[in-house]
Amino acid sequence: MSKNVIELSGEVLAKFSDRNGNPVRGRLTKPKNLSGEIAALRDVIPGNRWECYNGSKAIEFLHDGYYCIALKIRLSEEDRELLEEQSDSTIRTIYVPGSIYLFLADQLELFPKNLDPQWVDEYIVGPAGGPDGVEIDVIIESLEMITVFQLSEASVFEKHTSGQYVANYLLTFDSNLRGRNFLSPASLTIIRAIFLQEKDRLIESNFFEAMATPLLKHAFLEVYRTLEFVFVLPRANALLDRLRTAGGVLNVKALDFARLCHKELGWKRVERDSISRLFKEYSNHNYSAFILLYENCKPFTAVIKPEATDNDVTKSDFVSRAVEKYYVLRNQVAHQFWPDEMLECDDEDWQALIEFTLGCISYFYSEHLKKTA
Fold first, then answer.
1. Would the CA dihedral through 155, 158, 161, 164 be positive or negative?
2. What is the pTM of this model?
3. What is the pLDDT of residues 326-339, one digit of tens each?
4. CA nearest neighbour of 358 among 213, 190, 246
5. Most buried residue, 47, 50, 222, 247, by most Cβ within 10 Å?
């Protein structure tokens, strides 16, 4: 560890200013088990540090033999329980010793909250210059909030998964990141499931944009942009199969191959055709999703009501009509239409459309990423 407890204590106090604008100097209250605090700090093994999607810093480290990630977020009790449940209890939040908190406050570049100068004078400046010093709990409550996550060896993530990817998954549980967004719990659950399915290089920025925007039609467009990349996956897998059948030895993951096709060969997305291909395959797997879309998204009521039937002609006809309607809704968000040309779509309709799209993405990631080599 490059800095000791004394240095870290001085630096955390200097984050605050007195009434003259000068950094606060002095001391923190001596912990009851100083030797234990020093030993705990000495045993920390720092890893990478990076900037998250929301602009805050993050760091990975080993503590007490466990892999941990510290993020500048605050989770509600409900979010904590949901994280533990959806991670099969392999990820939990922990409290760390004061010395390690000081290390994290330095590494994550924590800033003081918007504090009243008189309060700072009474509870930080004064005690810092006194014989007892400032209690570490006062410092913790006065700086930006952080949460430390501990991952067990039986993590839901593969061992080679980067800390940055894990952190992005953890950020989906932060209610502050989601802000005034109204994505349904079902949509958030599917987004998290997609993170766990790919475990590689998901285009997560679109999902974060979908979670952050207060307008559901914009959230739908961001989710749709993730679906756009999925257009390439079935075709890349089909080409891989043809090449291997012809005797080619290709040790490449389907996702990596799809990215190469998109980048090196300049594969373009023919959107209406691509949506049609995806929806046709998805309907063979989960036709009930189309029936739910009809029942819960009013613009689809103009389409002939689908029947839960085994008649392939009836199913194919409804899916084809659903493709047309879906493409129109996508276009009226992506492009500027005259108001009288736009289909009326309220929040419930956009929610249904988002959940349907996420279900489709989840299916294709699951189905086509099974072919890893």
1. negative
2. 0.78
3. 988 888 877 665 45
4. 190
5. 222
